[in-house]
Amino acid sequence: MASHRDLPVGLVNQLFHNTGSSSFTEFVGSYAPELLPQRDKILATPIGDQVPHATTIVAATFAGGVVMAGDRRATSGNIISQRDVEKVFRTDDYSCMGIAGTASTGIEMARLYRVELEHYEKLEGRTMSVNGKANRLATMIRGNLAMAMQGLVVVPLFAAYDADRDEGRIFSYDVAGGPYERERFDAIGSGSIFARGSLKKLYRDGASADDMAMTLIQALYDAADDDSATGGPDVTRKIWPIVSVIDADGFRRLTEEQVSGYVEQMLEARLISPDGPIAPLR
Amino acid sequence: MSMPFGYASPEQIMRDKADYARKGIARGRSVVVLQYADGILFVAPNPSRALHKISEIYDRIGFAAVGRYNEFEELRLGGIRYADINGYTYDRSDVTGRGLANLYASNLGRIFTESIKSLEVEVVVAEVGDTPDGDAIYRLTFDGSVFDEHGFAAMGGQAEAVSTRVKERYREAMPLAEALETAVVALTEPGGERPPVGQLEVAVLDRNREHRKFLRITGARLERLLAQTTGPVESAEPAEPESGSGDATTGPESGSGAAPQAPPTGPDGDVDDGSSPL
């Protein structure tokens, strides 16, 4: 005889089971683990060279915020697999990430990461601290290490506006995680060496968002100039880099018109001086 | 057959449970949810800043609740998990207010029939569309019934009286300040004092926002909005007859006439001011 005491009571669906954690990833891991990226499978053969790779991302802080920009090229070996891929993602109102490495893995990670941040924010009723966000991303990259060893490497660049300090912050990672906080600017991906060299000369402390967006577009051009896997602005197809600005007003992606304005200005100057702006010697 | 000792008919059990839940819900204060020009507005008198009665569930979906905090909080968390997991599995546009309302309804209904005590909560799930036609307000009661409300919903406390007062002033596509004024007037007992700004929890689902439509309105912005309409309250009233509630056009006066400065007629018990987590 089952009395009503023996019947299931309460909110019986697993969705209402309190896991005691505000992490979406942990919840999915217990509720529907097959939805999470499969990271522990051994691939029969490394496929790193055959899947599209995202290339260069640059980011730099300015007075009261941070700008991130990425080129639009994805490559598989020596083939250009996509000309208009988007590699800079809004992750919440005050942060974004750019990805370099295996494009598919990176896009999947960005999607999960966005839900992760929002999930915490909605459950807890507050935004996660910038350090918390950076650490959370490090854990996700660390989880991808097994796949990275087989060629599916993904390395993000994370940028966020820190309301407590009223400044932009940049974090970089390696295949095993991180985060490494970067002062002023950083670049990732195949063209990052050249972009970083360019940024080193062009970066100005206390610049405006407008100037910094221009600086990043110059740096991406310099990267595309010397790295075959980084795409320059495609004038004939009108494909421009993606530029995102985060400041106290939140995240905003510059429109096509705004970016094309910067690009045209830069190209015009480069017709005269092909190597771009010349930094003062003294 | 003689009835076993302690037998109560199913009708009696259900009636008792429903009465119990209704009493619990009426003890708290009301929450008003209504459509305005750019989306959906939520207003709740709530002295607590930490324990919310209104919350974001997903991009286009908001949640408001009255009753026992711990019970509706559980619903809220479950709703967020439901929405996030569906949005992650499929696409963000595949998370709907209707799906969430059905999830809540099935759980509330199950608990109502199977558990000794039903949940003492009433919930609104609201979803903002690209156009006013796409807006939806679902009100769910403790027994799992779903009401597809048009334009506005009031629940908790003196829900019927509040609902009548909203109806008197409500018209379609009001600007935000006017909609807020409508809600605040409805939440104020006739002849009573308006809830102070610091004790109002206000949020909107604004269809013009990017990404996430939900936005809490607090501090200076809320004060500005309230100040916009406190002046022309009188001028707003002549517009009432066209709202179509002909039988009660002299709303506030007739309301106060029926119960001249009477205290709330709700069941005995402490007023739930949201300060206790229980």
Strand content of chain A: 25-35%
- How many runs of DSSP E, i.e. beta strands of chain B? 10
Alpha-beta content class of chain B: alpha+beta
Rg from alpha-carbon coordinates of chain B: 19 Å
Number of helices of chain B: 8
Could you spell the SSE succession of chain B in H and E letters? Answer: HEEEEHHEEEEHHEEHHH
Mean pLDDT of chain A: 87
CATH topology of chain B, anyone?
Glutamine Phosphoribosylpyrophosphate, subunit 1, domain 1
Distance between the termini of chain B: 43 Å
Shape estimate of chain B: globular
**CATH architecture title of chain B:** 4-Layer Sandwich
Helix/strand/pairing category of chain A = alpha+beta
- Which protein chains are joined by the largest interface, and how many residues does each one contribute? A-B, 28 and 26 residues
Q: Strands of the biggest beta sheet of chain B: in what spatial order?
A: 8-1-2-9-10
Topology, pairings included?
The complex is a heterodimer of chains A (282) and B (278).
Chain A: H1 24-31, E1 53-54, E2 57-62, E3 65-70, E4 74-76, E5 79-82, E6 88-92, E7 95-102, H2 103-124, H3 130-143, H4 145-149, E8 154-162, E9 167-174, E10 177-182, E11 185-188, H5 192-202, H6 209-226, E12 242-247, E13 250-253, H7 256-272
Antiparallel strand pairs in A: 1-4, 1-7, 2-3, 2-11, 3-12, 4-5, 6-7, 7-8, 8-9, 9-10, 12-13
Helix pairs in contact in A: 5-6
Chain B: H1 10-27, E1 31-36, E2 39-45, E3 54-58, E4 61-67, H2 69-89, H3 97-114, E5 121-127, E6 136-140, E7 146-149, E8 152-155, H4 159-169, H5 176-187, E9 200-206, E10 214-217, H6 219-230, H7 233-236, H8 251-258
Antiparallel strand pairs in B: 1-2, 1-8, 2-9, 3-4, 4-5, 5-6, 6-7, 9-10
Helix pairs in contact in B: 4-5, 5-6
